[in-house]
Amino acid sequence: MGSGEDLFVKVRLWSNEVAQELMNREWRIPPRPWSELFEKFTIPKRDARTIGSRMYLNLNYYQTNYVVMVAFTIIFFILRHRWSLFVVGTIIAGWVFATSMKPVIISGRKIRRKEKFYFMCVVTIVLPAVTGVTKAFFTYFLVITSSTFIDRSPERLMFSRGNNSITE
After folding, report:
1. CB–CB of 69/143 below 8 Å?
2. Longest dimension (CA), the chain
3. Which family is it part of (predicted)?
């Protein structure tokens, strides 16, 4: 097995893990007050563990708020740039096609899974950059990164193990 196939297997395993975690999550948590979301912005310590911990806690605590922000950003961007819907749809369809087990034959040559994977990696990077969809992804990055600046120290939060929610 080559390094490209190893990467492909790792990406598939990771995406299955993420999908399983998302399916098991409790998504009916009501949104937290918006004023609370924006009131305590502080710069975190320059420790990767601290930043990761704050991001994890804040994304879980304000998960519904972040989903609403990302949804509004997507809707706004699609209304302003109609091509973005086509671009994202093309990329999704390409990945579904690339990860399918059906063999692809072009001009009598069978295309391997590794080649389909590499092609889709290039398309996923180049197509949004050329069409301007990258602006939306940058916005999502800013929305998610902002969660590291909210100070919700772990001492103030208690995890309720039964339903994946966090209470103060």
Report:
1. yes
2. 63
3. Belongs to the PRA1 family.
- Report residue 33 as tokens: 């007050």
Rounded to whole angstroms, how far apart are CA atoms 155 and 152? 8
CB atoms within 10 A of CB 150: 20
Tokens standing for residue 137: 């992804």
| Residues counted in the chain | 168
Separation CA 143–CA 63 (nearest Å):
12
Task: Look up tokens 């009916």; give the residue.
Answer: 28
Phi, psi at residue 147, to the nearest 5°?
Answer: -65, -20
* Inter-helix orientation angle 48-61/63-80, to 10°: 80
Q: What is the pLDDT of residues 9-67, one digit of tens each?
A: 887 787 778 777 767 776 667 777 777 776 766 666 777 777 777 777 777 777 788 88
CA nearest 131: which of 87, 94, 90, 89?
A: 87
Confidence (pTM)? 0.46
